[in-house]
Amino acid sequence: MNIQIINGPNLNLLGVREKSIYGSADFESYLADLQQHFTDINISYYQSNVEGEIINKLHEIGFIYDGIVLNAGAYTHTSIAIADAIAAINTPVIEVHVSNVYKREEFRHHSMLAASCKGVITGFGLNSYRLGIESFLLNINS
Ligand SMILES: O=C1C[C@@](O)(C(=O)O)C[C@@H](O)[C@@H]1O
Protein backbone atom coordinates (compact mmCIF):
# COMPACT_ATOMS: atom_id res chain seq x y z
CA MET A 1 0.00 0.00 0.00
CA ASN A 2 1.31 3.44 -0.96
CA ILE A 3 0.26 6.38 1.20
CA GLN A 4 1.31 9.98 0.55
CA ILE A 5 1.39 12.57 3.31
CA ILE A 6 1.20 16.15 2.04
CA ASN A 7 1.81 19.09 4.33
CA GLY A 8 0.99 22.62 3.23
CA PRO A 9 2.20 26.06 4.26
CA ASN A 10 4.07 26.64 7.52
CA LEU A 11 3.95 22.96 8.47
CA ASN A 12 7.70 22.74 7.77
CA LEU A 13 7.92 24.70 11.03
CA LEU A 14 6.19 22.08 13.18
CA GLY A 15 8.12 21.84 16.44
CA VAL A 16 9.15 25.48 16.10
CA ARG A 17 5.97 27.44 15.37
CA GLU A 18 3.37 28.20 18.07
CA LYS A 19 4.34 25.22 20.22
CA SER A 20 1.39 25.71 22.58
CA ILE A 21 -0.91 24.92 19.63
CA TYR A 22 1.13 22.55 17.47
CA GLY A 23 3.47 20.89 20.01
CA SER A 24 7.24 20.69 20.12
CA ALA A 25 7.87 17.61 17.96
CA ASP A 26 9.26 18.16 14.48
CA PHE A 27 7.55 16.36 11.63
CA GLU A 28 10.62 14.53 10.31
CA SER A 29 11.10 12.68 13.64
CA TYR A 30 7.40 11.87 13.80
CA LEU A 31 7.50 10.60 10.20
CA ALA A 32 10.34 8.22 11.08
CA ASP A 33 8.21 6.85 13.96
CA LEU A 34 5.25 6.43 11.60
CA GLN A 35 7.38 4.58 9.06
CA GLN A 36 8.65 2.26 11.81
CA HIS A 37 5.12 1.66 13.05
CA PHE A 38 3.58 0.90 9.65
CA THR A 39 6.26 -1.41 8.31
CA ASP A 40 3.99 -2.87 5.59
CA ILE A 41 3.10 0.51 4.13
CA ASN A 42 5.17 2.76 1.91
CA ILE A 43 4.67 6.24 3.39
CA SER A 44 5.94 9.11 1.25
CA TYR A 45 6.15 12.68 2.47
CA TYR A 46 5.93 16.00 0.65
CA GLN A 47 5.76 19.52 2.04
CA SER A 48 5.28 22.79 0.19
CA ASN A 49 4.37 26.33 1.09
CA VAL A 50 3.14 26.92 -2.47
CA GLU A 51 -0.46 26.23 -3.45
CA GLY A 52 0.34 25.25 -7.06
CA GLU A 53 3.03 22.80 -5.93
CA ILE A 54 0.54 21.04 -3.66
CA ILE A 55 -1.84 20.79 -6.63
CA ASN A 56 0.96 19.41 -8.84
CA LYS A 57 1.74 16.75 -6.21
CA LEU A 58 -1.94 15.77 -5.97
CA HIS A 59 -2.02 15.36 -9.77
CA GLU A 60 1.26 13.43 -9.80
CA ILE A 61 0.29 10.74 -7.29
CA GLY A 62 -3.50 11.02 -7.34
CA PHE A 63 -4.00 8.25 -9.89
CA ILE A 64 -1.30 5.93 -8.54
CA TYR A 65 -1.30 5.95 -4.73
CA ASP A 66 -3.82 4.20 -2.48
CA GLY A 67 -4.38 7.10 -0.12
CA ILE A 68 -3.42 10.69 0.62
CA VAL A 69 -3.28 12.26 4.08
CA LEU A 70 -3.43 16.02 3.49
CA ASN A 71 -2.86 18.84 5.92
CA ALA A 72 -3.25 21.87 3.67
CA GLY A 73 -2.66 24.31 6.56
CA ALA A 74 -4.35 27.65 5.97
CA TYR A 75 -5.16 26.71 2.35
CA THR A 76 -7.79 24.44 3.93
CA HIS A 77 -9.86 27.52 4.59
CA THR A 78 -9.28 29.34 1.29
CA SER A 79 -8.37 27.13 -1.64
CA ILE A 80 -10.97 26.30 -4.27
CA ALA A 81 -8.07 25.20 -6.49
CA ILE A 82 -6.92 22.48 -4.04
CA ALA A 83 -10.55 21.39 -3.56
CA ASP A 84 -10.87 21.04 -7.35
CA ALA A 85 -7.63 19.03 -7.49
CA ILE A 86 -8.90 16.63 -4.80
CA ALA A 87 -12.14 16.21 -6.74
CA ALA A 88 -10.21 15.62 -9.98
CA ILE A 89 -8.05 12.71 -8.80
CA ASN A 90 -8.96 9.08 -8.05
CA THR A 91 -6.97 8.53 -4.85
CA PRO A 92 -9.05 9.14 -1.70
CA VAL A 93 -7.89 12.05 0.45
CA ILE A 94 -8.23 12.38 4.23
CA GLU A 95 -8.01 15.96 5.51
CA VAL A 96 -6.08 16.19 8.76
CA HIS A 97 -5.19 18.94 11.23
CA VAL A 98 -2.85 18.91 14.18
CA SER A 99 -4.97 21.33 16.20
CA ASN A 100 -8.72 21.11 16.78
CA VAL A 101 -9.73 23.80 14.29
CA TYR A 102 -13.21 23.99 15.85
CA LYS A 103 -11.75 25.20 19.16
CA ARG A 104 -9.98 28.04 17.38
CA GLU A 105 -10.84 31.21 15.45
CA GLU A 106 -14.07 31.10 13.49
CA PHE A 107 -12.28 31.47 10.14
CA ARG A 108 -10.75 28.03 10.79
CA HIS A 109 -14.16 26.40 11.23
CA HIS A 110 -14.81 26.25 7.51
CA SER A 111 -12.93 23.91 5.21
CA MET A 112 -13.03 24.47 1.46
CA LEU A 113 -11.62 20.94 1.06
CA ALA A 114 -13.69 18.75 3.37
CA ALA A 115 -16.56 18.19 0.94
CA SER A 116 -14.12 16.75 -1.62
CA CYS A 117 -12.40 14.53 0.98
CA LYS A 118 -13.38 11.13 2.30
CA GLY A 119 -13.18 12.37 5.86
CA VAL A 120 -11.62 14.82 8.27
CA ILE A 121 -9.47 14.21 11.37
CA THR A 122 -8.70 17.22 13.54
CA GLY A 123 -7.25 17.87 16.97
CA PHE A 124 -5.15 14.80 17.80
CA GLY A 125 -1.79 16.49 17.53
CA LEU A 126 0.64 14.74 15.18
CA ASN A 127 -1.32 11.55 15.75
CA SER A 128 -3.97 12.98 13.41
CA TYR A 129 -1.65 11.73 10.62
CA ARG A 130 -1.48 8.26 12.15
CA LEU A 131 -5.27 8.13 12.44
CA GLY A 132 -5.50 9.19 8.79
CA ILE A 133 -3.30 6.26 7.77
CA GLU A 134 -5.25 3.89 10.04
CA SER A 135 -8.44 4.87 8.23
CA PHE A 136 -7.00 3.54 4.97
CA LEU A 137 -6.09 0.27 6.70
CA LEU A 138 -9.63 -0.13 7.99
CA ASN A 139 -10.76 0.13 4.38
CA ILE A 140 -13.58 2.45 5.37
CA ASN A 141 -12.87 4.91 2.60
CA SER A 142 -14.91 3.53 -0.25
O1 LIG B 1 -1.46 25.94 9.38
C1 LIG B 1 -2.44 25.51 9.98
C2 LIG B 1 -2.37 24.21 10.65
C3 LIG B 1 -3.67 23.44 10.73
O2 LIG B 1 -3.94 22.84 9.48
C4 LIG B 1 -3.47 22.31 11.76
O3 LIG B 1 -2.80 21.34 11.42
O4 LIG B 1 -3.95 22.40 12.89
C5 LIG B 1 -4.85 24.35 11.10
C6 LIG B 1 -4.93 25.51 10.13
O5 LIG B 1 -6.02 26.36 10.48
C7 LIG B 1 -3.67 26.33 10.17
O6 LIG B 1 -3.73 27.36 9.22
Essential attributes:
binds 1,3,4-trihydroxy-5-OXO-cyclohexanecarboxylic acid; globular; 18% strand; Rossmann fold
Describe what you observe in this structure.
This protein has 142 residues and is an alpha/beta fold. It has one domain: Rossmann fold (3-Layer(aba) Sandwich), CATH 3.40.50. It has five helices and five strands. Strands 2-1-3-4-5 form a five-stranded parallel beta sheet, with helices on both faces. Helix 3 packs parallel to helix 4 (80-88). The chain is globular and about 35 Å long. The two termini are 15 Å apart. Residues 10, 71, 73-74, 76, 97-99, 101, 108 line the site of 1,3,4-trihydroxy-5-OXO-cyclohexanecarboxylic acid (DQA).
Quantity of strands, as a count: 5
Helix count, per DSSP?
5
CATH class annotation: Alpha Beta
Strand order of the largest sheet: 2-1-3-4-5
**How much helical structure, as a percent, in the residues?**
25-40%
CATH architecture label? 3-Layer(aba) Sandwich
CATH homologous superfamily heading: Dehydroquinase, class II
Structural domain tally:
1
Report the sheet with the most strands, covering strand number, pairing sense and barrel closure: 5 strands, parallel
Distance between the termini: 15 Å
Mean pLDDT over the residues? 96
Alpha carbon gyration radius: 14 Å
Q: What is the molecular shape?
A: globular
How much strand content do the residues show?
Answer: 15-25%
Q: What are the secondary-structure elements, in order, as H or E?
A: EHHEHEHEEH
Q: What fold name goes in the CATH topology slot?
A: Rossmann fold
Ligands: 1,3,4-trihydroxy-5-OXO-cyclohexanecarboxylic acid
Structural class based on helices, strands and sheet pairing: alpha/beta
